[in-house]
Design brief:
The protein is α/β, with parallel strands linked by helices and 405 residues long. It has two domains: 3-38 and 280-344 and 382-404, Aspartate Aminotransferase, domain 1; 47-278, Aspartate Aminotransferase, domain 2, CATH 3.40.640.10. 38% of the residues lie in helices and 14% in strands. Helix 8 (170-180) links the parallel strand 4 and strand 5 (183-187). It is globular and about 70 Å long.
């Protein structure tokens, strides 16, 4: 059996009921389980990726080559948004967004304490003041009630992070932003492709709802390149022009600099890779949901694990599959799994308000009870598009071994 055949015959079929999942014959022995298996994913699309990269090399258009503008247009069509502005990485995307919106040192920006540090990092780097709030205990996303209470006359923006693959409660956040005349900057690095359903039936993709959206194409993301990359999304023509200028040294005409800018470009080779993977993105999400369904079926009634909630207003693309432990030692569980070949991660072990770099007299331990409890109890299992059925069964068996010990 050829490698290609082997890969295509050992996966999890989207839509298959997890309890009746067909286990493919394993002639080769189970491969090592990865949190994210980029090598197996590459094998599936190897021909298309190799061809796309070779075309860039053949043209030698390594900076701002045709593949960049092509990917930009493809992503605009996919997201149904007027403007996609590629940049060098997701952190740059957040920084450029705040620079383009004209925030000044001392302005306050609200975000969640339960998230990756990049969100608060950019706020602090620009001399702005990070204002941290708690999250919803079920979805882990920012709590609109906490946001409302945190607004002051200095507040200029809210940055909801669409955590782990589903949208924050954007309708409520939009109402708050409009009421207080402040901006909404979506961090959609973990949820690209997720859809938000408004109460009136409208549907929009994550990252296209607020003033501006920012994303990362880090390799492990649902839409990841083979290096660093990022992008911004907006329907505002004037804002898009300013973002493009700032990302290009503050110039719209070469050597004429109208803004203080940065040098933040998406590499042409990375754009070529992303074009290939964008065509697969919805299928990737379907595979991730099938895997999440299998995990849910296995652990949903254990009494010792709380499976991820699905918000009624958002689809879930499962960047991570994150459980909460209940009455069991989370760290002992992680060690048990890893000893038996099952990787597990803690996203995130320390909330932002307790990180050394962000210690602030306004906050103390106990101020954000949901966030602090999550940091003590969450554990993420392997979640990727190339999971083999026998790997899945081993993960489930090993987790149950620990729970039943």
């Amino acid at each position: 059996m050829r490698c290609k055949d082997r890969e295509s015959n050992r996966g999890i079929t989207p839509g298959t009921h997890p309890q009746n999942m067909y286990i493919r014959a394993n002639f080769f022995g189970m491969d090592k389980i990865q949190m994210v298996d980029l090598k197996a994913q590459y094998k599936r699309i190897k021909h298309e990726v190799d061809q796309a990269i070779q075309e860039v090399i053949d043209t030698t258009a390594f900076i701002n080559g045709p593949a960049v503008s092509r990917f930009q247009k493809e992503l605009e069509n996919y997201l149904s948004v007027k403007h996609v502005i590629p940049c060098a990485n997701g952190t740059d995307a957040l920084q450029i967004a705040m620079m383009a919106l004209g925030f000044k040192p001392g302005d306050e920006v609200i975000t969640a304490s339960f998230t990756y540090v990049a969100t608060a990092e950019v706020i602090a780097l620009l001399g702005l003041k990070p204002v941290l709030v708690d999250v919803n205990p079920e979805t882990f996303n920012i709590d609109p009630e906490a946001v409302e209470k945190a607004i002051t006359p200095k507040t200029v923006a809210i940055v909801p992070v669409h955590l782990f693959g589903q949208c924050a409660p954007m309708e409520a956040l939009l109402e708050i932003a409009q009421k207080h005349n402040i901006h909404l900057i979506e961090d959609t690095a973990q949820a690209i492709g997720s859809e938000y359903r408004f109460s009136d039936g409208r549907v929009q993709k994550a990252g296209t709802i607020g003033t501006i959206g920012a994303t990362s194409f880090f390799p492990s993301k649902n839409l990841g390149c083979y290096g660093d990359g990022g992008a911004l999304f907006t329907n505002n023509d004037e804002l898009a022009a300013k973002v493009r200028m700032i990302a290009n040294h503050g110039q719209s005409v070469r050597y004429y600099h109208d803004e203080v800018g940065v040098n933040s470009r998406l590499d042409t080779i990375q754009a070529a890779v992303l074009s290939v993977k964008l065509r697969e993105l919805d299928q990737y999400a379907a595979r991730r949901r099938a895997l999440a369904d299998a995990y849910d079926a296995a652990f949903g009634h254990s009494g010792k694990l709380i499976t991820p909630a699905r918000a009624p207003f958002s689809t879930h693309v499962f960047h991570q599959y994150t459980l909460q432990t209940h009455g069991v030692d989370r760290d002992a569980m992680k060690a048990f799994l890893e000893e038996r070949g099952v990787p597990a991660m803690i996203y995130y072990p320390v909330p932002l308000h307790m990180q050394k770099a962000y210690i602030d007299p306004r906050y103390k331990e106990g101020d954000f009870p949901v966030t602090e409890q999550l940091c003590k109890t969450v554990i993420s299992l392997p979640m990727h598009t190339e999971m083999q059925a026998e790997q899945l069964q081993h993960i489930i068996h090993t987790v149950n071994q620990f729970l039943n010990a």
